[in-house]
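Lab notebook, bench 4. Still working through the backlog of constructs that have no structural model yet. Next entry is a single chain of 345 residues. Request: give me the structure tokens for it.
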Amino acid sequence: MTCDQAAHAIEDLSQILHSLSQQLAHGRSTIRITRRLPALRRFDIACSSCGSGNRAGARFCQRCGALLNAAPGYGAGHVQSRTLTFTVAARTDTGRVRHQNQDSVYTGVIPLPDGQQAYLCLVADGMGGAAAGEYASRLAADVSRAYLEQESTSHPPATDAAWQALLRDAVRAANRQIYDAARTDAARRGMGTTLTMALLVGDRLHIASVGDSRVYLLNTNGVTDDGAPSAQLTSDHSLVARLVDIGQLTPEQARVHPQRNILYRSIGTDPSVDVDTRSEALEPGDIVLLCSDGLVNHVSDEEIARIALGETDPDCAVMRLVSLANERGGRDNISVVMVRVSGER
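Model written out:
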């Protein structure tokens, strides 16, 4: 970060602190300084006929219409696991301004000892100069993937909490290697990267995220309690995201803000790192989309949802999203990973 960038960042942070102090001075007992993630659909009661989830209090299954009886082994908080099929498409592009692509993308399968498979998707957006940023993102992808493969194939987690713990450990392993490499190589000093991972196991989605690369969940039937077709599942660990949260910037202003690339949390810049994790249920018709900020700086959430849900071919959808970002300037590297979920409802 240059002196001018640091000065602007401090000025913006002072605006945040001023806003918070004003809220407290006016009697606010609680204040929000981080993005409130949406409340996703909840399925408390499983249908004994088709296995689909239904909200508490429902008398008939929303999918097959069967009467919801309390079948043995199923009750509130339990939904029968179903076999789902995943179709994956991925694309990374240098864009129209940068001379080198510092993004890293990976998609692949991790075999589990019980015969199942875990599907891993990740996006890492490097920073710290051309060679350093590319190295950091690639190292983050390689180390976290190798860690997950080694640990999950020998000791596969049995719960959501255990999967999240494994993802956090994988991210921290990558953080330590990048941090150590930056300290021992002067040419790479100060390098770092974002790292966002989605692990699909059975009918569960497990996410880990550091930085401002995102994960979205989309479905034409709705993914939130209020029926919205799209929801961002990760928080942006960036300065402008906090300014949006407290009302200092609009989302549109944030896309063109000169400090939009300044992160307050990233991989490799400190000896330890906090990792956001969460787990969600997957449904047929869902789309899981990961992307770097090179996409969202040019394409709105509504446009992402419309293109992703409107295309039957994930490859075509990914290509359209990357092309649209380039048409609007392509100021940064652009990476998109899309997973389409299918199976019996």
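Notes after review: Residues 80 and 292 are 34 Å apart (CA to CA). Helices lie at 3-25, 130-154, 160-184, 239-245, 251-256, 293-296, 301-310, 314-327. Flag for follow-up if needed.
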